[in-house]
């Protein structure tokens, strides 16, 4: 492998069979666009030039994936794969090699591409090929005395050629200068009226180059997305691989077929994840963390020993050690829970810091609050943090006990060790160590009768 490597990613196609307004390569797989996956793999090869050929959707694709290291080449009309690579040529380094990838083939492994690159050289063109039980639709590798002589497209193939099961995955590596000479000679005199990149193979043979082939270890590495069904199928393959990798390093995934990671999931030792959980962004789970069924966690750090019970939703938050959360809890952005905090069912916490040993166990809303240590917040407590125009903070100091059905009208402070009686609407600060309550005095009207129906 030489040091100069151009990578061209073909991404101009419309994806008619997606039946979508979104260009095909922007459809997400595991939370990242198809083209995003290909770009990440391409970047791992450290190319000197990285060029994406775009077309359908115009600037939508470059805008969605704009990055310093990408050269965007527009292909205004989709006249074929050869024509597409031609659009990239002016941007490429003519010395060294050019690797062609497809923006709609997301799961090719880095090691496979590295193997392919090792097969190529200044006098050798390399094609990634595979043997498919059903090769229909693909270009076929035509060999004479064992050597590849050309590629024939399905629509141009004879009956005998269609029987060939070795297919062209579309991924090739060629010496850049020669590739540009061959592309200049392409014609569209074929069944589809397109400029075929695959026609460069026969030209290379005519120029005395050897055609090497390499193969992926798995068929899914070279599968493209042409429909929503194929997108879903590749999603499952990706998720299954991710689950198997986690399980292989000690995470107990109760059912590897029911895990979805749309980003990165980092697990400590003896982590258990029950079925149907979705992890988005970057999620880190410490040792012995357990996640119940049907939880959704996005950009969350959970420290060791914490138990998250079913149907909990946590986003952009940090959870300390040995906490107990859920079932049915919602923890919203900007929240930090220290160790040993308990957040129970139907509790919503937003942009709040809750210190160690504190409990909000039932049916409460705690927003824009600073809660100290060993605080107990009773059922149905609400921080009234929003006055219709601005948000205000509620401060609850260490050791406070808030009775059930309390409204804390922010800005307000409940000082250390205070007790708030049930049903209080707190509008002024509550002094430390005292019982504060606002409540209409209870009375009994003796002899009162319920009305009866006339
Ligand atoms: C191509 C190959 C075929 C191979 C198959 C593998 C050619 C002529 N044929 O066929 O041998 O078996 O891929 O899937 O190369 N694209 C552009 N601009 C264009 C045309 C295509 O950017 O003008 C992009 C598409 O968006 C797609 C990729 O190139 O990502 C492949 O195009 P597609 O039309 O799917 O090629 P096939 O006809 O399937
Ligand atoms: Ca295709």
Question: Would you kindly provide a written description of the structure presented here, covering whatever features stand out?
Answer:
By secondary structure, the protein is an alpha/beta fold. It folds into 2 domains: 5-222, Spore Coat Polysaccharide Biosynthesis Protein SpsA, Chain A, CATH 3.90.550.10; 228-436, UDP N-Acetylglucosamine Acyltransferase, domain 1, CATH 2.160.10. The chain contains 8 helices and 37 strands. The strands form 6 sheets. Strands 13, 15, 17, 19, 21, 22, 24, 25, 27, 28, 31 and 34 form a 12-stranded parallel beta sheet that branches. The chain has an 11-stranded parallel beta sheet with strand order 12-14-16-18-20-23-26-29-32-35-37, with helices on one face. The chain is elongated and about 105 Å long. Bound molecules: uridine-diphosphate-N-acetylglucosamine and calcium ion. The site of uridine-diphosphate-N-acetylglucosamine (UD1) has 27 residues, from strand 1, helix 3 and strand 10.
Give the second-level CATH assignment, the architecture of the largest domain: Alpha-Beta Complex
Q: What can be said about the biggest beta sheet? A: 12 strands, parallel
Q: So what's the CATH class of the largest domain?
A: Alpha Beta
Overall shape: it is elongated
Strand content: 25-35%
**Number of H- or I-type helical stretches:** 8
**Integer-rounded radius of gyration:** 31 Å
């Amino acid at each position: 492998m030489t040091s100069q490597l151009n990578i061209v990613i073909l991404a101009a196609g419309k994806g008619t069979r997606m039946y979508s307004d979104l260009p095909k390569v922007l459809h997400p797989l595991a939370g990242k666009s198809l083209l995003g996956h290909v770009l990440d793999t391409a970047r791992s090869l450290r190319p000197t030039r990285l060029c994406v050929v775009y077309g359908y959707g115009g600037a939508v694709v470059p805008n969605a994936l704009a990055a310093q290291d990408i050269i965007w080449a527009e292909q205004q009309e989709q006249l074929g794969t050869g024509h597409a690579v031609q659009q990239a040529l002016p941007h490429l380094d003519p010395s060294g090699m050019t690797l062609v990838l497809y923006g709609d083939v997301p799961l090719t492994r880095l090691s496979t591409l590295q193997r392919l690159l090792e097969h190529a050289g200044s006098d050798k063109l390399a094609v990634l090929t595979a043997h498919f039980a059903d090769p229909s639709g693909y270009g076929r590798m035509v060999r004479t005395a064992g050597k590849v002589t050309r590629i024939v497209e399905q629509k141009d193939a004879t009956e005998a050629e269609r029987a060939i099961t070795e297919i062209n995955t579309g991924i090739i590596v060629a010496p850049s200068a020669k590739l540009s000479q061959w592309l200049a000679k392409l014609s569209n005199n074929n069944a589809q009226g397109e400029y075929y990149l695959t026609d460069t193979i026969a030209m290379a043979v005519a120029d005395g180059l050897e055609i090497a082939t390499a193969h992926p270890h798995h068929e899914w590495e070279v599968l493209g997305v042409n429909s929503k069904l194929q997108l879903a199928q590749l999603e499952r393959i990706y998720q299954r691989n991710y689950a198997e990798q986690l399980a292989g390093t000690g995470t107990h995934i109760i059912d590897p077929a029911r895990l979805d990671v749309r980003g990165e999931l980092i697990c400590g030792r003896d982590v258990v994840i029950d079925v149907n959980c979705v992890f988005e962004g970057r999620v880190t789970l410490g040792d012995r963390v357990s996640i119940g069924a049907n939880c959704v966690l996005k950009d969350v750090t959970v420290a060791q020993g914490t138990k998250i019970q079913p149907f909990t939703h946590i986003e952009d938050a940090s959870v300390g050690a040995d906490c107990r959360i859920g079932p049915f809890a919602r923890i919203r952005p900007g929240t930090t829970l220290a160790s040993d905090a308990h957040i129970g069912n139907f509790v919503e916490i937003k942009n709040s810091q809750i210190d160690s040993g504190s409990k909000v166990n039932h049916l409460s809303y705690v927003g824009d609050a600073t809660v100290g240590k060993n605080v107990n917040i009773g059922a149905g407590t609400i921080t009234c943090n929003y006055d219709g125009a601005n948000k205000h903070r509620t401060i609850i100091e260490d050791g406070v006990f808030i009775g059930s059905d309390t409204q804390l009208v922010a800005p307000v402070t409940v000082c250390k060790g205070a007790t708030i009686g049930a049903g209080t609407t707190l509008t002024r600060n509550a002094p430390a160590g005292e019982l504060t309550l606002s409540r209409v005095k209870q009375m009994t009207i003796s002899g009162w009768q319920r009305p009866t129906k006339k």
